[in-house]
């Protein structure tokens, strides 16, 4: 989370967890999970996530600070208590492989004004600002963690709306950055569904592609839609979408070949470029897919089972 921002998770998150075999399909669906998983969350709905640096007047609960590596993962429930009354009010998470976050329990906190004047809420127009674009590559040359998560989420929606059919991407940044991921998660062959980029400030492609890649609203998270259009859309993180709509001057992908002998480069330091294609975060993909009601369709049930078997083989190898 950016400083001074927050987000709300409408679905249940965190402990307590109950095994799928104990819960059953109907109870799991009421929790927003529509395909078999190891365990289903029965935690609170509408938990609020903030950046750890924005938390105040809270102290760690020592006997709830379990973690796998050099941090805490929140497995035992809220591990932060109010300094004043001692009530457990939030969960700090910062173990290896986790984004550092603080999750506030909705029934333990109350909203109060800071007294500071607030700026205008973000809207579709913010997507056209250069600072809203999220570059796909980190300064150290690795792929952006936000891009890996966002592409995983978008791929789950793409698999659902296309029902595991091949997908053709538009030439340019979309195909360059997402092509490897789409080819890895979806089949190839005839009968491909067409996809196109659409959103504020972009003319809708004609004829309309089967699927539109659109941004989520920067405040509400609702996907953008063309007026009067009810066709299939796949929502993208607004910062990722903004970069695809207005990419930088240089490609983040490694260039093929080498410069001719005697030609010198005058840009230093060289722009960071990852050594491998962009790969989606598999947990973001899996967690999103099981929360889409479409995953109950027979074709998608077969797809997910094949996907899980492939992940198991890769882990065993």
Describe the protein.
- The protein has 317 residues and is an alpha/beta fold.
- Strands 1-4-8-7-6-5 form a 6-stranded antiparallel β-sheet, with no helix packed on it. The chain has a 4-stranded parallel β-sheet with strand order 9-10-11-12.
- Helix 4 links the parallel strand 9 and strand 10.
- Helix 3 runs parallel beside helix 6.
- The chain is globular, with a radius of gyration of 22 Å.
Key terms:
alpha/beta, globular
SSE string, helix = H, strand = E?
Answer: EEHHEEEEEEHEHEEEHHH
Helix/strand structural class? alpha/beta
Looking at the chains present, what oligomeric state does this protein adopt?
Answer: single chain
The helicity comes to 10-25%
Distance between the termini: 35 Å
The number of helices is: 7
Shape: globular
Query: Segments where pLDDT lies below 50 for 5+ residues?
Result: none
Identify the strand order in the major beta sheet: 1-4-8-7-6-5
User: Major β-sheet, in short?
Assistant: 6 strands, antiparallel
Q: What's the average pLDDT?
A: 90
**What would you report as the Rg, rounded to the nearest angstrom?**
22 Å
Strand residues, percent: 5-15%
According to DSSP, the number of beta strands is 12
